[in-house]
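Regression check, uridine-diphosphate-N-acetylglucosamine case 371:
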Amino acid sequence: RDIAVVLGTRPEIIKLAPLIRLLGDRGRIVHTGQHYDSALSGAFFANFGLREPELRLDGAAGAGGRGDQIGTLTRDLARAFTAEPPRAVVVQGDTNSTSAGAQAAHYCGIPVVHVEAGLRSGDRAMPEEINRLVVGVLADAHCAATAEAAANLRATGTDGDRIRITGNTVVEATLHSLPAPAERDRIVRELGAPADFVLATAHRPENTDRPDRLAALLGSLAELGELGHPVLLPLHPRTRGRVKEFGMEHLLAGLTVVDPVDHPTFLALADRAALLVSDSGGVQEEATVLKKPLLVVRTSTERPEAVAAGFSRLVEPGAELTAAARALLADDGLAGRLRDTPSPYGDGRASERIRAIAVALADGAPLPGDA
Ligand code: UD1
Ligand code: UDP
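Current build output:
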C-alpha cells in the first residue's frame, strides 16, 4: 500500500472513494478524523463499500482553531509518513485535512497529487481559498477538473507540465450512489418529503457564523414553504450548533429538518426535489449531473462552470433568494433545457485518469495524459 490517500471530511470521502477502489492493493486510506460523526464519515465508507482506513488520526483537535487543526494534523501525518513512507500522497479539494496532507507529504519529500486542483473563488476570507493556494504551491501533480481550473493554476505560475485536466470524480461518485428510480421514490416517501419540496443545505461560515445572514437564509427558506414549496433541510452539525448558539431554533419551525443523510439518500432527494438551495461545493457539481436547478447562497463561487452552463445562480439570502426561487419554480421550460445540457465536470472517468497519474508519480514515471 504505497499510495496514501488522505481524507477527513464528507466531500473528500465521496470524491475519493472511486479512486480508492481503483487503487486496489496500492491504496492506503488515511483518515484525519476531521469529520468524526457517522453521519458525516462512516455512512459514506459504507455507501462506497470502503474498508476501514489503514490509519485514523484525531483531527477533531481542531477545536483550537485552524492553526491548531492544520498544525496538529500536519505533525501527526508527517510522523506517520516517516514511520512508513508512501511513494505518493493523494489529497482532494480544499479542507484543513487537504492542507495538512499536502504539507506533511511535501515536508517528508513525498510527491503530492492534488485532486480537484485549481479552484479559485477569489475570496481570501474563505478558509478553503487559502487551503487551495497552499496546496497549489506544494502539489507535484495537479488534477484539474476543467479547463478553467487549469487556467487558474497557470495564472498563478504553476508549471503547465504538472497539470492534467481529468474531470471531477464527483461525476462517477454520483453515478455510483444514485439509486434506481423506484428506490428514489421509496426514499422520498420514507423520509416524508412533501410534494414539490425544495432540498436545502448550508454549512459555509459566511452563512452560518453571521447571525444576520443565517436568519435571512432560514427566513427565506420558511417563505418558500408558505409559497407551496416546503423545504427539506438535512442540517450540518456546524449549522445546528450556530442555530442553537444564536437562539434561532424558532426559525426552523416552518422547515422539515433532518440529520445529515447518506449519499444515496441525498441524491435521491436532490433528484426528486423541485429546486436545490445550497452553499455546498459538491452540490454545485452534482446539480449538473442530476440536471437540477440550484440557487447558490454565496457571494462568490469557485465553480463558475455550473453557473455558465445554466445550472446554478448566486443569490443573497433573503428577498433575492425568495424571488429567484419563485422565478425558477415557475419556469416550465427549465427542466427540459437542463436535461439537454452536459455536465461541465467530466465524463465519469476522472478517477481512472487520476489513478494513472498517482501510479506514475509513485513509480517515478512521466505523468500520463495531455499536458
Ligand atoms: C469542513 C471544511 C469545508 C467542507 C466541509 C464539508 C475546512 C476549513 N472546512 O467544514 O471546506 O466544505 O467540511 O462538510 O476544512 N462537527 C460535528 N461532527 C463532525 C464534524 C464536525 O459535530 O463529525 C461540528 C464541530 O462542532 C465542528 C464543526 O462541526 O467544530 C465544524 O466542523 P469542521 O470540520 O471544522 O468544519 P466544517 O464546517 O464541517
Ligand atoms: N451530502 C450528503 N448528505 C447530506 C448533505 C450532503 O450525502 O445530508 C453530500 C452531497 O451529495 C455532496 C457532499 O455531501 O456530495 C457535499 O458535502 P458538503 O456540502 O458537506 O461539502 P462541500 O462540498 O461544500 O465541501
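Comparison notes: The first helix runs from residue 10 to 23. The chain has a mean pLDDT of 96. No diff flagged against the previous build.
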